[in-house]
Every structure is written in structure tokens, then in C-alpha cells.
Amino acid sequence: MVTDPIADFLTRIRNAQMAGHRVVDIPASNLKKRMTEILYAQGYILKYKFEDDNKQGIIKIALKYDPTSKVPAIRSLERVSRPGLRQYASPNQFNRVKNGLGVAIISTSKGVMTDKEAKVQNVGGEVLCYIY
């Protein structure tokens, strides 16, 4: 049993990139699916696929690398809010990630979205992670 599924999601991606894998399999949940869609929309992953295995389901993520230097597109995945210490922020408290180059994933009352989308919709929430 995993006590922090978001940290597990980020760690699986981080470990796969450090090992140079092209594809990583992650146990699915609705939150992880939405985070995957955000990573794809922001251009951090090549593509993804949701598979049903008659249990929990699996998310297959094709990782993105620079073709010449083989450097991963995701430089850093940082968990902000954790089970022992939740971090909440209002729209005017969102910190810019790497001076605007990165993205923060926020869990709001209107769903999981990036910090920029949450600011436009003027909703705050739990800051899940920073990605750059």
C-alpha cells in the first residue's frame, strides 16, 4: 500500500528518466490521470495511454528527451504538499516556478489544474507539485 500516491507518481517518472527508459507504467487513479494530461499539455511528456487491466488500471507514459543531448524534458519534479504537511495557497499567493518557466499543479475545488489556470479562474487550493 502506498501512503502518498502523488509522490509515488513523481518518483516513478524521475526514476525512469534517470535510468533512461522511454516508457514508464504507473498505477492509475483519476488524480494521476489528470496530472498526466497536464504534463502532456505543458509539453513535458511525449504521449500517454490509459489502459484497463480489470483492476486499478495503468497509465503508460512515453517520456520526452532532447534528441541530440538525451537530456530529459523534465528537469525536476518536486512534491510540495505532503500528507504530513499540506500546503494551500490562494490565487495571489502562487509562487512562480523557475521564474515562470516551470508549472505548479494545483488541486482546486474546480479540479486539478496548473497555477496559471487557477489564477485565471481565481481559485486557490492545495499545491501538489512543481515541475520544470
How would you briefly describe this protein structure?
With 132 residues, the protein is α+β, with helices and mostly antiparallel strands.
End-to-end distance, in Å?
29 Å
Order of helices and strands: HEHEEEEEEHE
Strand content: 25-35%
Instruction: Note the overall shape.
Output: globular
- Alpha-beta classification: alpha+beta
Helical stretch count? 3
How would you characterize the overall build of this protein?
The protein is α+β, with helices and mostly antiparallel strands. The protein is 26% helix and 30% strand. Strand 2 (45-51) and strand 3 form a beta hairpin. The longest helix has 15 residues, at 5-19. The radius of gyration is 15 Å and the shape is globular.
